[in-house]
Amino acid sequence: MSSPHEYNWRRLSVGVIGGGIGGMSVAIALRRAGHEVTIYERNDFAGEVGASVSCAANGTRWLHEWNVDVAKGDPVVLRKLINRDWKTGEPVSTYALDDYEERWGYVYNMFHRQYMHAMLKDSALEEEGEGIRAKLLVHHQCEDIDLVNGMITFTNGKTVHHDLIIGADGIGSAVRKIIGLNPEKRPSESSCLHANVRTEDAVRLGLVDYSKHDALEYWGGQEGKWDKIVLSPCNGGRLLSYYCFFPRAQGDYTNHTWGGEDLSVEELLAPYPELDRHVFGHLSIGKEIQPWRLWVHQPYPYITRSMVCLLGDAGHPMMPHQSQGACMAIEDAAALGILFSKAYFSGDVHETLSIYQEIRLPRATKVQSAAAKAAYNINERIGFSSNTNNKLYSVENEKGKLTIEEMNGYDMYKHVDEVMARRKGRSYKENFKDGIPLDLKLPNGTPVVEVARL
């Protein structure tokens, strides 16, 4: 049986500005939806910097729906979240993920960022698989977009036309400025240095083998302090990726860029004289020490204009403390893939993008806000926000906190159906509100949909 929009559907020429994780994800989603996609990357390669990236169930589900070969990303499947005492290293709060896949249908993956990008790039560009393979053009830096005619001008002098243009060009997005958004932002109160430790080096020196825990591990983050260490294993546990936070007054890296000369181990260790000696030992052999710029952006009033939309950090940059940045970009891509599919796309790009904004902006904005709170209070972090019996537990607003139920219980297809029914003046009779099942409850019995509205 044909879908209601199938005979109005048309194949679009899509231009994606930015070839990172978000850009490759949306290329896959729109390729699967039947469109012709070209990715434009400003550099001489399309890649990612950094070491680790989280992909919880709300992101992993789309990788499977798009038939991405997840094994290529060489992930660690996380089994728990552990918050440790700053000085002793003893666990003070643990959130087990033993039943995670059973509850949510998908595992919680931790990838090496470059491996995840290569995995997505293969799916976007390969000949095999559903849809027309995407094209990738490097050395194409966006200079301007004609918002009437859909014409992109690049700094290399070339111009192209597309029916749909997606700005996936990151936190410093050129596309965002072109559509009239000038971020209200400020430097974070905390700074961050990143370091990598090879597990084999740590084991050889007799240090703790954290790779055996299959866990995201945190030191500190309690009592409103900015000091926090985050350990995320990747590459099957062979690499340990450390994000080291401290007050900006002890070191300001807001204007440093990743990719310069590595910083010294002494600079990495300086803020942490009282840190647990076990993890301190790991940091003492840290390599590739680089600054991670942290800026707090206020929510944007819109993320679409004409035939252009923003995706990922270009549309809702957020602090890293909920480990949801990549998942939000993947969800953005999934929303566009659904909305422009044969089942939903009626041929009107502007109308479809307005639905995209209605669906994505509130959810991403809530995660953005929750990530800022978790920067100084680990109890606001998804997972730990459910450990209400912990003696150190305290959140700003119990009903307004971000929960694992809200993130992983969300059904984007139901959300799309609800919004489209409302726009057509039809009643929506499914047992969902904004993609959340009405019968889904938090561990304390509160309906998740009540929390999600805050």
TrEMBL record:
Domain of life: Eukaryota
Record GO terms (molecular function): FAD binding; monooxygenase activity
Transmembrane regions listed in the UniProt entry: 12-30
Keywords, sorted A to Z: FAD, Flavoprotein, Membrane, Monooxygenase, Oxidoreductase, Transmembrane, Transmembrane helix
Residue ranges of every copy of the FAD-binding domain listed in the record: 12-368
Pfam families, sorted: FAD_binding_3
Family membership: Belongs to the paxM FAD-dependent monooxygenase family.
Identification of the protein by name: FAD-binding domain-containing protein
